[in-house]
Amino acid sequence: MTKDLFDKYIWLVDTIHRAGRITLREINEKWAMSPLYDGADIPRRTFNNWKEAIQQAFDINIECRRVGGYHYYIENPEDLENSTTRSWLLNTFTVRNIISESKGIRDRILLENVPSGQKHLTPIIDAMQANKWLEIVHGSYWYDRPETYTVQPWCLKLFNQRWYVCGYCRERDAMRTFALDRIIGLTAMNETFEYPADFDPQGYFADFCGISTDSNIPMTTILIRAYGLQVRYLRSLPLHHSQKEVATDPDEECAVFEYRFRPTWDFYSTILSRMDQLEVISPASLREEIRCTVQRIASRYQESPGR
Fold first, then answer.
1. DSSP code of 263?
2. Alpha carbon of 244 to those of 205, 222, 280: distances in Å?
3. Cα–Cα distance, 115 to 109 (Å, whole number)
4. Nearest CA to 290 among 225, 230, 233?
5. Please, which residues have CB within 8 angstroms of residue 163's CB and are 6 or more apart in sequence?
């Protein structure tokens, strides 16, 4: 699947989903205003081909109600909200679609750039669909020179505006995660693999807060005290799916949240990014690690920046 076709499929799903019910004529009217428009209407045969491809690629069924003029609609639209992948695809394209149609205010809508998704995302998805090995030339921050790996792409994950591909790495004989923005070269190989039926992408990351994984880190129950507005922020956007509010100040000046996962670098980074608004209460070992890190940060500011 080329990126051009991928965008057209998502555009069609988004257009029908936003309309609720829509005819092919109405679809073509919106198509003429789309940035993907190539100067010609979508013929019925092409439309039917796109419908079949969308069903195979995204498991989204576009049905037709013949009574009253052949209106097309998404079967079980609530499934789109329940699937994080399909929901993300639609939300992303819906925003892009609306912006392209709002020419008068386009410059007033600012989005974050996700450069890693522009070049490598589509060929990786193609390899995942065909169960093909990937040859990845990866420029890690840990090594001076790029390394080449052969990888079975099992899943993709978006975290903090960066895409990652995760799967079995032949050279490491283990699971590895590669940031797409550090991929220098990517080639789909002719060699195929059998996707493991017992692999659960959501479950693989469930015990971690972020993208970093390390099964050698024990599962840990963590208590965090949040102050000020961070209390409301955590309620609306939890740090982790295990989050539970276990104590609350009556004036809502602070609250204590409980978590259970394996703390990796991503967790430390998140805590420190909230400045003085989050405090690790327990376990004592984790609290001590954060305290030592804060002390090292403070020591840097005690020195002159011009040394």
1. -
2. 19, 11, 15
3. 18
4. 225
5. 114, 116, 117, 120, 121, 156, 157, 179, 180, 181
Tell which CATH classification among 3.40.50, 3.30.70, 2.60.40, 3.40.1110 matches the domain 220-301: 3.30.70
116-206 folds as SH3 type barrels. (2.30.30)
pLDDT digits (tens, 9 = 90+) for 236-269: 999 999 999 999 987 768 999 999 999 999 999 9
111 pLDDT exceeds 70?
Answer: no
Tokens of 306: 């011009």
DSSP 78: H
Model confidence over 13-47: pLDDT tens digits?
Answer: 888 988 889 999 999 999 998 888 889 999 999 99
SS (HEC) of 9-71: HHHHHHHHHHHCCECHHHHHHHHCCCCCCCCCCCCHHHHHHHHHHHHHHHCCCEEEECCCCCE
Cα separation, 140 vs 199, in Å, equals 26
Separation of alpha carbons 205 and 70, rounded Å: 44
Nearest to 51 by CA among 20, 24, 77, 91: 24
What is the edge-to-edge ordering of all strands in the sheet holding 254-261? 244-248, 254-261, 220-227, 278-282
Cis peptide, bond prior to residue 146, ω within 30 of zero: no
3-state secondary structure of 241: coil
Provide the token pair at 282.
Answer: 């327990």
Q: Where are the alpha helices (DSSP H) in the chain?
A: 3-19, 24-31, 44-58, 78-82, 84-101, 116-119, 121-130, 201-206, 230-236, 265-273, 284-301
